[in-house]
Structures are given as structure tokens and as C-alpha cells.
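Format is sequence with structure; example below:
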Amino acid sequence: MIGSSSLAASAGSDGARLSVSTTQTSSPLRHRHRLTGTLWTLLYLGLAVAPLVVALVPPAPPGRDFWTEVAVAAGFVGLSTMCLQFAVSARFRHVAAPFGIDVVLQFHRQIAIFAAVLVIAHPLILIADEPSRLGLLDPFSAPWRARAGLIGLLAVLILTLLAHLRRRVRLRYEPWRVSHGLLAVAAVAGALIHIELVGHYLDQPWKRALWAAYTAGVVGLLVQVRIVRPLLQRRRPFRVEEVRPERGRAWTLTLRPQKHAGVSFQPGQFAWLTLGRSPFAIEQHPFSFSSSAREPDRPSLTIKELGDFTGRIGEIEPGTTAFLEGPHGAFSIDRYEGPGYVFVAGGIGITPIMSMLRTLADRRDPRHHELIYAAATLDDLTFREEIDELAGVLDLDIVYVPSRPPADWQGESGRITPELLRRHVVDEWPGHEYFVCGPRAMMDAIERDLVAHGVPLDQIHTERFAFA
């Protein structure tokens, strides 16, 4: 799931569940998600600015000039935002449900830059206001309060640089993930110790209690994510039942639950997969379910050979122990009801869409659906034979779009253009919900073209996200 939900099925290198029903209405569901999203946003903003508000409540430390107060404000908001990053990145399904995990992860990346700017601005403003404070950056002569702040500042700088340069320096995902977590803990711990040792704005017990609550929150989140969650997964292991080759250099892993009922998910969702005897392993990768949601006791994940981990998928032995964390994601037909669905897939982006199609077939869904599926060649169309069979079960129109078609090909070819979309879906099937999954550039172009053709933006569903 590096880059987009289409890559959830293929790019491992580098959540309460709704009941399955075709009779739910979209308006109440969408309204509920919007309301829940608004409440989560207001809570986040309140927690982000709470330390600043508390700091402004009298009595204030005497003799503090304007620029010192500005620096303190930047530091407080930067630190509270950094603490909240542990919650944003903790993959809580209830939090991500109203937005989609792509939005949550994008917010995580953008707000991290905002927090880093505030944290870096804190000492820069203090030094610009009083140049003699430059000596506080000397780790050998500075007081311990300044040393703790310096540790936090350096951790923020290194963390931010690695997050944005990981791909350029070709740092593998697993080492980066470990270093990212350790640096985040060091940054927050250094800043919290700095505030405690400085002592200003902590002269009242209730002010001190606020930062104690933030500290307890960070520790609690670390325990939940790194200890409690893996322990819960350990009680619900799976076994790899089958490793099946597919078209397009992809492999389907079929899992069987061991002494439990399996995993209930919405069609189109994904889970983090860990292979081996322990769920505490660092190597954990997100992949989309490709199986029907009607088969929680036999979930399948279809993965394309792309990276270090995915390149070895075909070597996995049946019987291997596996653990799933999830389900996650808002890219699902169960969130949106309409007269039918239009699916647009590129390459391995067919994976979550295949889960939706299989689920619709199992439900004997009577509505009309359309699938436009693009790939390099006809041989790269993963699930092609089964998709053709599904057209006999569902009211499903299929448009294959190979970019390099054979000489005798009579169908569409090249790429999915605005004209192709207009010919096959926009004018013919108004009111349908659109699900687009593939490479980021393809999704951006199709979303733009559909909007230009008059399709409402809230009827177009994609997921775009990356970890770094």
C-alpha cells in the first residue's frame, strides 16, 4: 500500500466493521461519517492547542518578553502536535473510518512538517531575540534542560530528513520503520524533559497534570501498538493454505484461521500481514483482500512481485504461520449505496475491486456494474478468466484496455482517456458510484476527467497513501 490502494496488493517493501448488506442507504451512512469526522477533528484541534491555552492562563512567569512568549507558544504547540502523531499513526479503525486511511496518512505526513517547523522555530526565535542564548546549543557546557531540548531537536531534524529522503537514499523499509519510531520517542521524550527542567508554565499542579497526561498518552499508545496489539494477534493466528500464481506476476495467498472464526472485512479493505511465528516481527506489510467478504474463514490476499518482500511471495511455503492486523480502509462498496458501481482498475489495482466483484456475485446483486481494467498486455490482466465468468453471474460490462494489444485486438487500447470514460460510463450510467484503483498518476487523471464530465466528487472513491 505504498503510493495508493492499488499497491496495497503489491508494494509491501518498502478497522468497528459494518455488516454486509445491500439494502443500507448511503445518505445516513455518509452523514454519520461526516459527523464523526467533524468530532474527531474538533477533538484533535482541542488537544493540539490545549497546552498553549493553559500556558496563557495566569499567573504567568515574570519578566518574559514578547518574542520569548512566541517561542514558547511555538514549542508547546509543536510538542503537543508531535504527541498527537502517535495517535494519528496508530491505525485505529474508528479514527480512520470517517476519512479513509489515505487521508489520515497524508495528514500525518503534512502535520509532521508543521510540528517540525514549530519545534525548530522555538530555539531559533529565542536565539534571534537574545544571541547570547546560542551557547545553550553547546552540549558540553549547556545546562541539562538545554541538553534535553537539544536531543529532542536533533531527533526531530533527523526524523524529518529520513522520512523525506528514504527513497532517495534507498533505505529499506524495515530499518527506516525502526529508526522512525525510536527517533519519534527520543524527540518527544527530550522535549518533555526539557519542559520539566525549565519549570516555567508548570508552576500550577493542574498545568503539570496536563503534560503528565500527554506523557501517559504517548506511553499508552506505544504499549497498545507495540505490545497489546501483537499479543491479540498472537491469539488469532492464520496458516497459509495455498500460494497460487496469477496473471501479471502476482500471487494469491489463501489463509485459514487457526482455532478462530477468521477475519470479517468489507470488500475492498486491506490488512497488515506478518509472516512467521511471531506477530512482533518488524517486517509487516499491507495488502488488499482479494477474496469475497462472504468468506471470512478463507481470506485471500493477492500480491504482485515488486519489492524485496513481494519478490519472494511465490517462495512462501503452505503451512507458514501468518498474522493479520485489520481490516482497515474506507475503499469499499459497503460505504456507498447507489444504482450500481463503476470500477476502474489499473494493473494490480484490480485486487480490492476483485474483492468487491466477488462479494457482489456472492450476494447475487441485481444492479448494473461496469469494469474498466487497464494493463500493459492482455496477459497482465490479473483474474481475467474469473472476471469473464463473473459477467455471467452479475449484470457486469467489462472493458479491457491493454496498452500493448495483440495485432488482432478489436477492443479499447492505449490508456483510459476522457473519451473512453464518456463512451462507456459517464453518459450511459448516471448516478453510479465510481471506484478507481491503480497507479497514482492514473487515479489523479481519471478523477480529474470524471469531475470534468460532471460526476460529483463525492461519488468518486480512491485511496492514496504512502508511509514515507
In short: The mean pLDDT is 87.
